[in-house]
Design a protein that fits this description.
The structure holds two protein chains of two kinds. Helices cover about 10% and strands about 45% of the residues of chain A. Chain A is mainly β. In chain A, a hairpin with a 5-residue loop joins strand 25 and strand 26. Chain A is globular and about 75 Å long. Chain B has three domains: about 280 residues, no CATH class; about 170 residues, Serine Threonine Protein Phosphatase 5, Tetratricopeptide repeat, CATH 1.25.40; about 100 residues, no CATH class. Chain B contains 31 helices and no strands. The chains are: A mainly beta, B mainly alpha. The interface between A and B is large, with 39 and 42 residues.
């Protein structure tokens, strides 16, 4: 063999060896030991995680870091190593194996970062692995946090064990806006989805069958929004809102979304009838955000005293939490509307969400109004339905907006959207809530390279909701229905 | 023959030059317009997203080229070169014969296609890719290999170039038909795959409407618009190829000059007619004003308006802003056409164009939240869902001014991944580290100090009240004061105009500006006669002119005569300009306190 060929082979082997070494990463050496915890993004320090969650990759918050290195170890001697320029990039299979081996236990994470002056090793922190599992995935809308005009958006589902995100439907397939979506206790086979725009409709997914409805009737205010399923699956509570927007000239909240009128109605899925009652259709109250209790016997909702016509004293509108009985057998409401919580003149309650085990109810509190999403001061509060005690969820609240939230099907995990990342773009966070209502430090939805992913993402996560399995959604059929003029009308009955 | 070759080369060069000069000199702001509705990011996620739909590769090339349109002359050269390439590819496909002039036809049609400000360069790239592939495949000698390559290429090309790839299938099919080989049967499969199966199946896998998979996913900014001129150009290639293959006389030599001249004439006529029909100089003018406002070229706006009176609401908005920024509004605003308060700050319209110019005015006034909203909404209204370098830049600035640094950083970070905004983004990023740097910045500092202290809700029905509050928040904000007073004058509410005039004290005008004098005098004349002593601060010539104006109007002089003598006064606007849209202000609206 000619010498020239030998050289070629050696060069080739050398390159392979270099690549192999490179793939093993750089060894942490001569590291300066730091007394502090690492400043990482996302902040995963001492968070509680469920088994099956995708790897919690992270990077150093500082742009000056050249490399980040993490060793995750358990008490039995198993370790997982991740290293990268921007992210730890843990091997997904090894991650799942390690987490599964430590259910109910904790993992110790030792982080080192390389800067221009060399390696620094920080004080270790922990991942606590909960004994409570989490659902298969999350469903949410991705949309720019805009004002009135919309651009590209869609409803997406994300497998929480991996980083896979797939669209259920995007508005690139039709002209319109995808809006309120709701599942029945994370059941992916039953979904209500509202479409706005020229092809407005409410799509109902029921065991794979899609139907497009016209939810506007002569006897109701408008289209059905903010859906919430009855645990039996026979009913869906909706509100119908005359929603308006106005814009702050100076305030950081930018937008004020408010209702000029709103009512509540329950849709009987089998009879295709909206059930209305004068108690929930008053002119003097704005009723909105209806949700059924875990046993389906109570309908909770937010309501506020209506403003006089023409008034724009929006900062005087404060919603309280109300309830009314609901009989699923007869499809009738109780006779009395009860005020459950009144925060008085200081706060406004919106987005009540009862846990599916019937123990708690979490709601958003803002200074005023019903759309806490645009209120930077908005926080989450927890109401113990057993004792009637309520408290701000200091474990999960931040200085910025905490707003829409939902429970996992086992009621042990909660997902909520928060603007804490940058003050504008909402991101989903997860917290574990134990049987006594104690919540753990929340963690941001994991990504393969979270720094890059969230930096490049100019979309907000809207209405995050758990799903127990993958949603089988025929988007071609959905688009066909949306573009078709036919809408199944709904009947109305007053009870 | 050599002479002929030289002439062909000259024709091609002449064509390229004509295209370049046209876009550089007659249509430069169309190119700026194109650039401002996209944001080419050197980021993997961006490239992946563009490539994830049929036609994505051509689209990516188009977007890459379009970023250079920030500099119109470079953009014009790019278009010139691309259309020359299309012409040369056409010539190669149809043969270098005496119908050379006809090879200009597809490129000429593309020229017409690109006259539409919403036609995207990706369409041109799609045709180039398809022609390149069709030409290359014809060079494979082995029929079986050729057909196999065609089968692979057809769907691949569909994915790269979009439905224009139908042309590839057609050209290969025609070529095979001419060759008379049995393998053309195989190509029938390719036709089915590309023509039927792919567009029919793809809606299940990509989030694109079925119609767009047939007519073009992203050849125009309005995705559901049928790109007729692009398809005419595509069809013309097929027709030329057909003629080349099957019309026998095509190759026969006759008189040396007749055919080249006639064929070139045909192409020329197509260009001339197409350009005449599709060219829109008026749109170019509107775009020019917006471009100048965007780049704060206030003197250039005034010079342009002096040459030709603006007559479009957006042009008037930009002109009024230029007058204000140069401190000339209070003197000269009625020298130009005015269309009511709408010409100061147009009502929000949900489109990607109008809010951009309007936002420039809100920005310079110091209504930063409103400027931000208008820019954001303009970007959201971009029909093909692209982002905008111009909008990102402004959004970074507005967030910087109001102190929302994390969001400003996010926009700046994205801009740092662009070719032409990178330097600015990296420089501006330094301001994020120090609040004092923002406060002392000549533009951002001034605008931050103009922001109102107390919050209230925006109301386009109550513009004067908002401007009043704005001025009261910073009494050195001369632009706010002049917009406030102009809003009263334009809405013909001279009582409010006069009532607010004492506020001008803090501006410190060395003398009463002319337009304000005219307003004041008009108000005064309602209860006084010409014989009385004129009010203080009014120039004698202005006073005399009002007397002349009343004399002429009392005499019932023809409108043309009044316009000729007084068309550039407030008095003419007040009495004779009708149908102006004054949605913003009503005299009875509550106004801010003058104390």
């Amino acid at each position: 063999m000619p010498q020239q060929h030998h050289n070629l082979i050696y060069s080739f082997l050398f390159i392979i060896a270099v690549l192999l070494l490179a793939s093993c990463g750089e060894r942490v050496s001569n590291a300066t030991s730091e007394a502090s915890l690492p400043d990482i993004y996302p902040d995963y320090v001492d968070v509680t995680i469920p088994v099956g969650i995708a790897p919690l990759n992270f990077g150093m918050k500082s742009d000056d870091a050249l490399l980040v290195d993490a060793v995750v170890a358990d008490a039995k001697g198993h370790t997982l190593h991740g290293q990268g320029r921007e992210t730890t990039d843990f091997d997904i299979d090894d991650w799942h194996k390690l987490v599964a081996q430590n259910v109910g236990d904790s993992l110790t994470v030792t982080v080192s970062a390389k800067f221009a002056d060399g390696w620094h090793t920080y004080q270790p922190f922990h991942f606590y692995v909960s004994t409570d599992s989490i659902d298969y995935g999350l469903c949410y809308r991705l949309i720019e946090p805009g004002y009135e005009v919309w651009s590209k958006m869609g409803i997406y589902q994300r497998n929480l064990s991996t980083f896979e995100q797939t669209p259920l439907i995007e508005n690139t397939q039709f002209e319109g806006c995808v809006n309120c979506h709701g599942f029945n206790r994370a059941d992916p086979s039953r979904m209500s989805l509202h479409i706005r725009g020229a092809h407005g409709a409410t799509l109902l997914l029921d065991e794979g069958r899609l139907t497009a409805y016209n939810t506007k009737t002569d006897q109701t205010l408008g289209f059905c929004v903010y859906p919430y399923w009855h645990p039996s699956g026979k009913y869906i509570a909706y509100s119908t809102n005359t929603t308006r927007q106005t814009f702050h000239i100076r305030h950081a909240n930018r937008i004020e979304v408010f209702d000029a009128a709103s009512d509540i109605q329950v849709y009987d899925v089998e009879k295709n009838q909206l059930i209305i009652t004068p108690s929930l259709k008053t002119d003097s109250l704005y009723e909105t955000f209806p949700v059924f209790s875990a046993d389906g016997k109570t309908l909770y909702f937010s309501a506020a005293q209506a403003l006089p016509p023409g008034s724009m004293q929006l900062d005087s509108v404060r919603y309280s939490l109300y309830s009314i009985d609901f009989d699923a057998e007869s499809g009738t409401y109780g006779s009395t509307v009860r005020k459950v919580i009144d925060h008085g003149d200081s706060c406004s309650i919106c987005f009540p969400r009862p846990s599916y085990d019937g123990r708690f109810l979490v709601y958003s509190v803002a200074d005023y109004g019903q759309f806490s999403i645009w209120h930077h001061e908005a926080d989450l509060w927890l109401l113990d339905l057993l004792t009637g005690e309520r408290r701000p969820m200091v474990e999960v609240n931040s200085d910025d907006t905490e707003s829409f939230h939902n429970w996992s099907s086992n009621s042990r995990w909660m997902v909520f959207s928060s603007r804490r990342d940058d003050g504008l773009f909402t991101r989903p966070y997860f917290t574990h809530i134990d049987a006594d209502g104690h919540a753990t430090k929340p963690f941001m939805l994991p990504q393969q390279n979270p720094r890059r992913y969230y930096r490049e993402l100019f979309l907000s996560y809207n209405v995050p909701d758990f799903i127990r399995a993958r949603v089988e959604f025929n988007n071609v059929k959905a688009v066909e229905l949306i573009n078709d003029d036919y809408r199944k009308p709904m009947g109305v009955v007053e009870k | 023959m050599k002479l002929m070759g030289r002439h062909k080369a000259l024709m091609t060069i002449f064509f390229g030059l004509a295209v370049t000069l046209f876009f550089a000199l007659a249509y430069p702001h169309h190119l700026h317009f194109q650039e401002q509705y996209q944001l080419f990011l050197f980021e993997g996620s961006y490239v992946r997203e563009v490539l994830s739909v049929p036609g994505g590769f051509a689209d990516l090339l188009g977007r890459f080229c379009t970023q250079f349109f920030l500099y119109a002359r470079i953009g014009a050269v790019i278009i010139g070169v691309l259309l020359m390439v299309v012409q040369l590819m056409s010539a190669r496909l149809v043969g270098w014969n005496r119908q050379y002039g006809l090879s200009f036809l597809p490129a000429a049609l593309l020229w017409v296609f690109l006259l539409d400000e919403n036609a995207l360069l990706g369409g041109v790239w799609a045709l180039i890719l398809v022609m390149l592939a069709a030409w290359d495949i014809g060079r494979i000698a082995n029929p079986m290999a050729r057909s196999l390559v065609a089968l692979v290429c057809a769907p691949l090309l569909y994915w790269m170039a979009g439905p224009v790839a139908f042309l590839f299938v057609l050209l290969v099919f025609l070529d095979e038909a001419r060759r008379g080989t049995f393998v053309s049967r195989f190509l029938g499969v390719a036709v089915v795959v590309v023509g039927c199966v792919l567009p029919a199946v793809l809606p299940h896998f990509v989030s694109v409407s079925a119609a767009r998979l047939w007519q073009g996913v992203h050849y125009t900014r309005y995705p559901d618009t049928f790109p007729m001129w692009l398809w005419l150009a595509t069809g013309s290639v097929a027709v030329l190829f057909l003629l080349h293959l099957f019309v026998k006389r095509w190759h026969e030599s006759e008189q040396r000059w007749v055919r080249p001249v006639v064929s070139a004439l045909i192409a020329f006529v197509v260009v001339a007619l197409g350009v005449r029909v599709k060219m829109n100089p008026r749109t170019e003018q509107v775009m020019a004003y917006d471009y100048m406002a965007r780049n704060q070229q206030w003197n250039r706006i005034l010079q342009t308006a002096d040459r030709q009176m603006p007559d479009n609401p957006l042009m008037v908005t930009a002109l009024n802003l230029a007058l204000g920024m140069k401190g000339l509004m209070a003197d000269n605003m009625f020298r130009y056409v005015q269309n009511g308060v709408e010409g100061l700050l147009p009502e929000f319209v949900s489109d990607p164009v109008s809010p951009l110019t309007t936002s420039e005015a809100y920005y310079q006034l110091g209504m930063i939240n409103t400027a931000q909203r208008f820019v954001f909404e303009a970007q959201e209204a971009i029909p093909d869902y692209q982002k905008s370098g111009r909008c990102y830049k402004r959004l970074a600035e507005t967030n910087l001014i109001v102190g929302n640094y994390p969001v400003a950083r996010k926009y700046l970070s994205a801009l740092s991944h662009t070719l032409f905004y990178r330097t600015w983004a990296n420089e501006t990023m330094k301001l994020l580290a120090d609040d004092e740097l923002v406060r002392s910045h000549p533009e951002y500092g001034r605008l931050r100090s103009s922001i109102v202290k107390e919050d209230y809700f925006y109301s386009d029905r109550d513009l004067s009240a908002m401007l009043g509050r704005l001025f009261l928040a910073n009494r050195r904000n001369r632009l706010a004061f002049e917009y406030l007073e102009a809003s009263y004058l334009l809405s013909k509410d001279i009582d409010s105009f006069v009532a607010r005039f004492p506020l001008s004290e803090s501006i410190g005008y060395p003398r009463f500006p002319l337009a304000f004098q005219e307003g004041l005098l008009l108000w005064w004349s309602r209860e006084h006669t010409a014989q009385e002593q004129m009010p203080p601060g009014i120039d004698r010539p202005t006073f005399q002119r009002l007397n002349d104006f009343y004399t002429l109007t009392n005499r019932k002089a023809p409108l043309e005569q009044i316009e000729q003598r007084f068309g550039q006064t407030y008095w003419y606007y007040y009495f004779f300009v009708k149908d102006v849209k004054n949605y913003h202000t009503t005299p009875q609206d509550h106004h801010p306190s003058t104390s």
